[in-house]
Structures are given as C-alpha cells and as structure tokens.
Write a structure and sequence with these properties.
The chain has helices spanning about 10-20, 35-45, 75-85, 110-115, 140-145, and strands at about 30-35, 50-55, 65-70, 90-100, 120-130, 130-140. It is about 35% helix and about 30% strand. It is α/β, with parallel strands linked by helices.
C-alpha cells in the first residue's frame, strides 16, 4: 500500500498544475503520464472526483475540461505525439497543463512550437520540483473571447 502513497514532490506538482489550470471540483480532468494512477488518487484525496487517466478515459470527444500531463521522458517527439492524441479529449475551452522534467533537457522552445501547431497558446508557466509546469489554452477560444 505504500506504493500508492503520494510523495511530497508529487503533491506539489499536482498543486501547481491545479493552480495553473484554475481547476474547480466540478471540472472533468484527464491525466496522462507515468504517475497518472498516483495523481488520480491525489486528486480524489483533494476532492476532485471527475478524474480519469488515459488508460480508462474512453473515446475522444471533447469531454474533458482539463488535461494534466506529467512528462518525464527525454523524447520530445513522443510528447508531441501524446499531446496530438490527447487534445481531442479536451473541450474547446479546455486547458492543457504539462509538467516537464528539467533534467531531461526538453527544449522549451520546441514545446512552445508543438503547442502552437496544435492550436494552443502558452498562457502561464512556473518552475516546480525540478521541472517546469506550463498551461496552454486553445487559440480559437481566445480569439472568440477577444472578439466578443
């Protein structure tokens, strides 16, 4: 049972991701990454009950308000592929929050380009637990809000 016990660093990463996403307990959240089962339990502990992982999320149809991705791998191309698949689960007004392990040397400029190519604009960022957390929203929604 100790294997499911969250670490302090993991709790801080989740707290920062929630803060940047501006999550409420009513949002539907999808988790992706190697620690997503642990993150799901941590979110449930915090009162977020509408949480799924990519392993049990069903078919993509824009049903989630927030996507939280914890990326620990060095392959930026694999992250790009994962994000390209994951964004179809997000609602048009959804937010994508990514934690990237800084020790992996992931190029932040490349991440910004990936997000732009997927139709997202980087909204906020914060250093957190040996990595960087960034939040991005869809460009189309931002343009519609500006026009209104």
């Amino acid at each position: 049972m100790d294997a499911l016990k969250p670490t302090v660093a993991g709790e801080r990463i989740i707290a920062t991701m929630i803060e940047l996403a501006r999550c409420s307990n009513h949002h539907r959240i999808i988790l992706s990454g190697s620690n997503s089962p642990h993150e799901m339990f941590e979110l449930h502990r915090r009162g977020y009950n509408r949480v799924a992982t990519t392993a049990d999320c069903g078919l993509p149809r824009g049903q989630y308000d927030v996507a939280l991705v914890e990326w620990r791998l060095p392959a930026i191309k694999a992250l790009e592929t994962t994000l390209g698949w994951l964004v179809h689960f997000l609602a048009p007004s959804g937010v994508l929050v990514i934690w990237i392990d800084a020790s992996q040397g992931t190029n932040q400029r490349r991440l910004r380009l990936i997000l732009k190519n997927l139709g997202f604009r980087l909204e906020a960022g914060s250093p957190c637990e040996g990595g960087l957390v960034v939040a991005a929203r869809r460009l189309v929604v931002n343009l519609q809000a500006t026009a209104a």
